[in-house]
Amino acid sequence: MANILVFDSGMGGLSVYREIRQSLPNHNYYYCFDNANFPYGELSEPALIQACVGLVSRMVAQLAIDLVVIACNTASTLALPALRSALSIPVVGVVPAIKPAATLTRNGCIGLLATPGTVARPYTHELIAQFAPGKRVLLKGTTELVIEAEQKLAGKAVDMALLQTVLADWLTGEERPDTLVLGCTHFPLLDSEIQDLMPGCRLVDSGAAVAKRVSHLLASHDMTESVGTPQAHAYCTRLDDEAKKLTAPLQAWGLSTLTEVMG
């Protein structure tokens, strides 16, 4: 039975955690979110890398972690090389699901909904050039929807007017994507609301691919599932009143406790 750490700046990584745990239920899971530095898209690159490497390394040592999943597109594009240098265990990142979207689109028009940083990064444009040649890929960066996803998990109603404003140019006009890449792990938390505004559009995210990769790595490292009672716990970097409000939602996702990370 492996100890698996799923890490994000906020709640978005829960969409990836859900996919992995559904595929591999008989392991121990630890979900850590860096709410003290949320959102990562607003940190400088050096600050993000320092925060991510320091926190993840500490969690790995304290919890005897066997495998790390960086369930954040922003952190994955920036911090993976440093994390892999710092740690001796497997580290899995997430990338926008351009490749599967390119095979699924029927009209050749794909939307990529991500954070402004992910949309702007050369890495994203390299993925598009490599896996979606000849396709029309429309890019949209938004931080507002990251906040909306966080608020939805905390029990607040999604601002559908805001969502409609963000997606406006994909809802009407000649160039409407028939396949939408949810390029931030927060956005699958809004999939039903997005689908309501874009009926018939296929939504694609990285969760299933990450779960498949984790399964392969656990098998190759001989960390097979075993009989027993697996545990799942959540950790945050600042256990303030706002974070405490997330205890019940996290328990609904199967994470039994919420604890502040020890320095």
TrEMBL record:
<dbReference type="InterPro" id="IPR004391">
    <property type="entry name" value="Glu_race"/>
</dbReference>
<comment type="pathway">
    <text>Cell wall biogenesis; peptidoglycan biosynthesis.</text>
</comment>
<dbReference type="GO" id="GO:0008881">
    <property type="term" value="F:glutamate racemase activity"/>
</dbReference>
<keyword id="KW-0413">Isomerase</keyword>
<keyword id="KW-0573">Peptidoglycan synthesis</keyword>
<dbReference type="InterPro" id="IPR033134">
    <property type="entry name" value="Asp/Glu_racemase_AS_2"/>
</dbReference>
<protein>
    <recommendedName>
        <fullName>Glutamate racemase</fullName>
        <ecNumber>5.1.1.3</ecNumber>
    </recommendedName>
</protein>
<dbReference type="Pfam" id="PF01177">
    <property type="entry name" value="Asp_Glu_race"/>
</dbReference>
<keyword id="KW-0961">Cell wall biogenesis/degradation</keyword>
<comment type="similarity">
    <text>Belongs to the aspartate/glutamate racemases family.</text>
</comment>
<dbReference type="InterPro" id="IPR015942">
    <property type="entry name" value="Asp/Glu/hydantoin_racemase"/>
</dbReference>
<feature type="binding site">
    <location>
        <begin position="73"/>
        <end position="74"/>
    </location>
    <ligand>
        <name>substrate</name>
    </ligand>
</feature>
<feature type="active site" description="Proton donor/acceptor">
    <location>
        <position position="72"/>
    </location>
</feature>
<feature type="binding site">
    <location>
        <begin position="40"/>
        <end position="41"/>
    </location>
    <ligand>
        <name>substrate</name>
    </ligand>
</feature>
<dbReference type="InterPro" id="IPR018187">
    <property type="entry name" value="Asp/Glu_racemase_AS_1"/>
</dbReference>
<comment type="function">
    <text>Provides the (R)-glutamate required for cell wall biosynthesis.</text>
</comment>
<feature type="binding site">
    <location>
        <begin position="8"/>
        <end position="9"/>
    </location>
    <ligand>
        <name>substrate</name>
    </ligand>
</feature>
<feature type="binding site">
    <location>
        <begin position="185"/>
        <end position="186"/>
    </location>
    <ligand>
        <name>substrate</name>
    </ligand>
</feature>
<feature type="active site" description="Proton donor/acceptor">
    <location>
        <position position="184"/>
    </location>
</feature>
<keyword id="KW-0133">Cell shape</keyword>
<dbReference type="InterPro" id="IPR001920">
    <property type="entry name" value="Asp/Glu_race"/>
</dbReference>
